[in-house]
């Protein structure tokens, strides 16, 4: 089996490890014991249960047109290559994540901006076909809509994206307070893809004033993102973000640092490519009597429980523990290790938008109060389905997909 990796939020990979512990966390092993729970989710056929009582979500961010082409090998400079297949499809972090949420049964509303060009019309029509509410998308007179060229290498199973931002951009003056209040009406959650941070802050402050929980996607540090993160209750970030943002020596210590710096955060998830994902959940009740544990050595022991023989997504969870980062402080909470599905090479088509699918599933899980032990494998399963087709949206599963039945029962 070959080993496939994706640099950002793609959590679905075809891989076989020689070690159960990610290289980022290799440290001296302390001889302490940990009480662990290891959950494997088996797929079975059940009737689809009722939707969460409050399943309206609002998303803010980018929606695009993706021009996708598969090639047998990425071209060298001045080379010419022939495409083996092609597709024109909607894209963009927010557009993809809300499409995923809609197919899972949520009622998403998207705040974004397109131009009144052919691409903008295509973006709106495709979102509406998937039951995403586009009435809060600003349509500019003139200008151009956002688009991307995406090359998918069928040999390495990687994708290369060239992104062209739309013009004019979405600015606070495009959005009235009455428009935002209408968008927030009945909303259980507001999601931000980390783009257009000035306008995102304008929207985020209004959401916070209306006491609506906020989920922020953090791909890389950028101006304005810090303040947006202070408003968030939930964060999903790329593998490189936690250490880049906190200047911590490891990902586990960076996650503890994030919860120390962001007291409103209930959980943070970092996607780790072929190593799946890692989640730190804050404990609501801090037990002063808990023993303090060094976070790196604790996580090393937790990763020892990972079963590499399992192809389906799984979750390993710790008990509530007081995690210490030297020089910073302690956080009381639980760690969860979510594994990625091992997709056969013959079935792995395209990782474009896998992270967006993951976030769409996380939105559903938040709305349905899903336990983390179910949420992480569920999100990995949704993203795995997406990776079996070309483009960010073609393979997104619907709520009735039998592969999701056991998670929704």
Largest sheet: 13 strands, mixed
How would you classify the helix and strand content by structural class?
alpha/beta
* Alpha-carbon distance between the two ends: 33 Å
- Name of the level-1 CATH class: Alpha Beta
Discrete helix count: 11
Q: How much helix, percentage-wise, in residues?
A: 25-40%
What is the CATH superfamily?
A: Ribokinase
Number of domains: 1
Q: Count every beta strand, where a strand is a DSSP E run of 2 or more residues.
A: 17
Order of helices and strands: EEEEHEHEEEHEHEHEHHEEEHEEEHHH
Q: Any idea what the shape is?
A: globular
Q: What would CATH call the architecture? A: 3-Layer(aba) Sandwich
Radius of gyration: 21 Å
* Overall residue-averaged pLDDT value: 88
Strand percentage:
15-25%
Q: Segments where pLDDT lies below 50 for 5+ residues?
A: 1-21, 23-46
What would the CATH topology be?
UDP-N-acetylmuramoyl-L-alanine:D-glutamate ligase
GO molecular function: kinase activity
Organism: Medicago truncatula (Barrel medic)
Domain Carbohydrate kinase PfkB: 56-284, 341-398
Keywords: Kinase, Transferase
């Amino acid at each position: 089996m070959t080993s496939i990796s994706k640099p950002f939020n793609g959590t679905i990979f075809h891989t076989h490890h020689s070690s159960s512990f990610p290289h980022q966390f290799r440290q001296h092993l302390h001889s302490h014991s940990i009480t662990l729970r290891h959950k494997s989710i088996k797929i079975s056929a059940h009737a689809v249960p009722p939707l969460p009582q409050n399943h309206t979500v609002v998303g803010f961010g980018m929606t695009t047109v993706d021009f996708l082409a598969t090639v047998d090998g990425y071209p060298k400079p001045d080379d010419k290559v022939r495409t083996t297949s092609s597709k024109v499809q909607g894209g963009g972090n927010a557009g993809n994540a809300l499409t995923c949420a809609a197919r899972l049964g949520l009622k998403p509303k998207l705040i974004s901006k397109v131009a009144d060009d052919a691409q903008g019309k295509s973006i709106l029509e495709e979102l509406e076909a998937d039951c995403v509410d586009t009435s809060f998308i600003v349509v500019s007179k003139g200008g151009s809509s956002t688009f991307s060229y995406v090359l998918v290498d069928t040999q390495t199973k990687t994708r290369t994206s060239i992104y062209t931002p739309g013009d004019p951009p979405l600015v606070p003056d495009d959005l009235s307070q009455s428009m935002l209040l209408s968008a927030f009406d009945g909303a259980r959650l507001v999601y931000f893809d980390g783009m257009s941070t000035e306008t995102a802050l304008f929207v985020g402050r209004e959401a916070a004033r209306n006491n609506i929980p906020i989920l922020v996607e953090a791909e890389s540090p950028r101006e304005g993102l810090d303040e947006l993160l202070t408003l968030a209750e939930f964060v999903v970030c790329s593998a490189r973000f936690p250490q880049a943002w906190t200047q911590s020596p490891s990902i586990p210590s960076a996650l503890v640092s994030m919860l120390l710096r962001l007291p409103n955060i209930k959980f943070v998830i970092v996607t780790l490519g072929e190593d799946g994902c890692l989640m730190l959940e804050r404990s609501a009740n801090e037990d002063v009597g808990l023993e303090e544990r060094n976070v790196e050595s604790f996580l090393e022991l937790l990763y020892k429980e990972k079963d590499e023989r399992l192809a389906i997504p799984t979750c390993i969870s710790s008990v509530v523990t007081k995690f210490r980062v030297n020089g910073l402080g302690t956080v009381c909470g639980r760690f969860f290790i979510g594994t990625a599905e091992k997709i056969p090479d013959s079935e792995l088509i395209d990782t474009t938008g896998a992270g967006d699918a993951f976030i769409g599933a996380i939105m559903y899980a938040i709305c349905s109060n899903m336990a983390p032990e179910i949420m992480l494998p569920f999100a990995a399963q949704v993203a795995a389905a997406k990776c079996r087709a070309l483009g960010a949206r073609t393979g997104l599963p619907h709520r009735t997909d039998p592969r999701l039945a056991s998670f929704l029962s």
